[in-house]
From TrEMBL:
One of its GO terms (cellular component) is chloroplast. Residues 185-511 form the Protein kinase domain. It holds the Pfam family ABC1. This is Protein kinase domain-containing protein. Belongs to the protein kinase superfamily. ADCK protein kinase family. InterPro entries: ABC1_dom, Kinase-like_dom_sf, Prot_kinase_dom, UbiB_kinase. GO terms for molecular function: ATP binding; protein kinase activity. Coiled coil: none annotated.
Length: 722
């Protein structure tokens, strides 16, 4: 197996080596959001073409993605469809002609960068659907080359603002009154404009400063007619076997999420749900409040948050906020399953009080339990280099369809991971050969990048890009593993309990004390990082998060929690891992470790008994007669036998106790000051743990006694009768 520290070091080396390759460097820069255009408005001269049409009372456009309803609506309006096609051809005629020429000449791959630049330059004029589709493709390395992705990521989702009179008419139509009867003030001009709408800064009659987003007129009509046309084209392309990508399936999957972005009430509810999920564990994360009484499908009114983009901040706590961001996205991915699907630097803000604000919840995606648990299982398999299990994880995580023969894939993946994780590290990796191997796999087998995973790569990549500016040694493993350790040690779901067992016992079922210490050490890092990254939070926020950030607290009442918070703010003599073990939140871990505890007590007691008989009483070879009928021997050694397994258990206990007491009982210099200091420190530790010891003893001791008695009885029977 591989230690997490070694894996972190290897990944930093691999990243450095990868950046020496131009294609890989461009790909990584793209995932980090380095090429994104963060302007508030489009460049001058850009004009977005929309389709205007009158709807009738019998046939309305659907407000959720419905292929049949959209087709029925536009089938009745052939003139509008022809008009839109003419608009599209007028804007993109040169691009389409060039693409057809490339296809006929077999130069699609050779000229893809030039075509991507062309596409980027014209796509803003085509309207919201094409802008959003281009951005979605820009994070799909399975569909585009790194260079083409790089160009599309420069795509700007900013367009010229539309007329303010139209915007104010939308406000009146949606909210039922002129803007001045609802808001005390609004900026005369929008402060930013995007493909779907534009934003004004305002103030409510009650005094709160707000951001008011107003949807662009005719967006729904333009989006649906474009989807209608693209889908017709995708159905036509199915006639050609050379086109292996199912355009219709990709479009339907993307369009269903895109439609949700058109409903601002849905966006407000997304923000509310997200904030609630983060409130207890991550009070450092801020989500602007939605004022639903001033929100409708096409008008969104939210709290105005002051701050600066995290990617542009020079504050000394940016690294801590990146850590908060990593934990936030891991929590979405591995715990809540409700994932922010539009991660880019413009949506991550550092507030003046040192917290991380996350904006724009129009586009969210759901991650099911199979994916959530499968990610953690895959990490545990990778640490133990269990490549057979990793290949199966690719199926669980939807990289490979079920039913695929996995045997030919295993040797290549094993080679890839072994090169990356071996002691020689990155310098031993031949990236040209590696790329060829992976390309061959993707050609021979139906590998794909699931949409949720492209979003994960983008989110984590953006955070990594921000972190690397201030800390070139940043490694995602160092930030992610502490959170994963916390989940493994505290989650009671059967699959995570099994993943914890696998992490500690491995494929061979042998207890690994070093791996357990690794997990407990990572848990301590999580507690420390959570506390140091709190920012200038008020005491109430700190109080609300106390139980989750410091695992010694558990589920307690407000007064006890306040006392616990005061205790947390004082220096602890007991290290966090030991406090966790004795805490209410450590109950699952104590239950998990019960059998190992029984083995330890059994082995230690027999070791002490053996030492007493051999050294203290000189009865090393003494035997006692066995008078039991049916016994397999006449005499039984008085001294207990110690097997290699027993000695391994004793060694493990020594390692774990050394880890738990190191830092709890003082530094080496303090130890050298003599036993008085040691006793004093030990008494202080015992005093800290004393309040929880009776409850833990009541829970654990009866089970230990019962299991220990059963173990001793079973061994005695074996020794006497077998």
């Amino acid at each position: 197996s591989t230690s997490v520290a070694a894996m972190s070091s290897q990944m930093r080396a691999v990243r450095s080596k990868m950046e020496e390759d131009e294609q890989l460097r461009v790909l990584m820069a793209g995932f980090r959001g380095s090429n994104l255009n963060e302007d508030d408005f489009a460049s001058s001269g850009v004009r977005m073409e929309l389709i205007e049409t009158d709807s009738d009372s019998d046939h309305q456009l659907p407000l959720v993605y419905d292929v049949d309803a959209i087709s029925a609506y536009w089938d009745r309006r052939p003139v509008s469809v022809i008009t839109r096609i003419a608009q599209l051809l007028g804007i993109s005629g040169r691009f389409i002609t060039g693409l057809l020429v490339d296809a006929a000449a077999g130069k699609l791959r050779e000229n893809e960068v030039a075509r991507a630049i062309q596409l980027r330059d014209i796509v803003t004029s085509l309207g919201p659907a094409y802008i959003k589709l281009g951005q979605a493709l820009s994070i799909r390395p399975d569909l585009l080359s790194p260079a083409a992705m790089n160009e599309l990521q420069k795509l700007c989702d900013k367009v010229p603002s539309f007329d303010n009179k139209l915007a104010m008419q939308v406000v009146q139509d949606e909210l039922g009154a002129p803007w001045y009867e609802i808001f005390a003030e609004l900026t005369p001009e929008p402060i930013a404009a995007a493909s779907l709408g534009q934003v004004y800064k305002g103030k409510l009659k009650t005094g709160e400063t707000v951001a008011v987003k107003v949807q662009r007129p005719y967006v729904l009509e333009t989006v649906t007619i474009d989807l209608y046309i693209i889908r017709k084209l995708g159905i036509f392309l199915r006639r050609f076997p050379q086109v292996t990508t199912d355009v219709v399936a990709l479009l339907d999957e993307w369009a269903a999420r895109f439609f949700e972005e058109l409903d601002y009430v849905h966006e407000g509810r997304n923000a509310e749900r997200f904030a609630e999920q983060m409130r207890q564990d991550l009070p450092q994360v801020v989500v602007p409040r939605t004022y639903f009484e001033y929100t409708s499908r096409r008008v969104l009114t939210t709290e105005w948050l002051e701050g600066e983009k995290l990617s542009q901040s020079k504050a000394n706590d940016v690294g801590q906020l990146v850590n908060v961001g990593v934990i936030c996205y891991l929590k979405q991915l591995l715990e809540t399953g409700f994932f922010h699907a539009d991660p880019h630097p413009g949506n991550l803000i550092r507030t003046p009080d040192g917290r991380l604000a996350i904006l724009d919840f129009g586009l969210m995606t759901e991650v099911d339990d199979d994916i959530k648990y499968g990610m953690i299982e895959a990490i545990s398999h990778l640490i133990h280099r269990d490549y057979d299990a990793i290949v199966k994880d690719f199926v669980t995580l939807d990289f490979i369809p079920e039913g695929t023969d996995l045997r030919p894939i295993l040797p290549v993946l094993a080679k890839v991971f072994d090169q990356a994780l071996e002691g020689g590290g990155a310098k031993n990796i031949n990236f040209q050969e590696l790329a060829a191997d992976l390309a061959q796999i993707t050609f021979d087998y139906p590998f794909r990048i699931p949409p949720y995973f492209a979003l994960i790569i983008r989110a984590i990549g953006v955070l990594e890009g921000i972190a690397l500016v201030g800390n070139p040694d940043f490694a995602l493993v160092d930030e992610a593993y502490p959170y994963i350790a916390k989940r493994l040690l505290t989650d009671d779901s059967p699959r995570l309990r099994a993943a914890l067992r696998y992490m500690v016992y491995g494929r061979d079922g042998v207890f690994d004390a070093d791996r357990l210490i690794d997990l407990l050490g990572a848990l301590e890092q999580f507690v420390e990082s959570s506390q140091t990254a709190m920012g200038n939070l008020n005491s109430e926020s700190s109080l609300n998060s106390a139980s989750s950030l410091n695992s010694v607290d558990g589920d307690v009442g407000p007064s006890a929690q306040r006392a616990s918070l005061q205790l947390q703010q004082q220096p602890h003599r007991t290290r966090a891992a030991l406090r966790f073990i004795f805490s209410p939140e450590g109950a699952l871990f104590r239950d998990f470790m019960l059998d190992e505890l029984v083995k330890s007590i059994d082995a230690l007691s027999r070791e002490q008994a053996l030492a007493l008989l051999q050294v203290g009483l000189g009865l090393q070879g003494a035997q006692i007669p066995l008078l039991l009928p049916g016994s397999s021997r006449s005499f039984l050694s008085l001294a207990p036998t110690l097997t290699s397994e027993d000695r391994r258990v004793v060694d493990n206990v020594t390692k774990i106790m050394t880890f738990l007491t190191r830092g709890s009982l003082g530094t080496q210099s303090q130890v050298e000051q003599g036993p008085v200091r040691m006793v004093s420190e030990g008494a202080a530790v015992a005093g800290e743990l004393l309040p929880v010891l009776p409850a833990v003893a009541t829970e654990v001791v009866p089970q230990v006694v019962s299991r220990l008695a059963s173990r001793v009885a079973a061994r005695t029977v074996r020794e006497v009768f077998v």
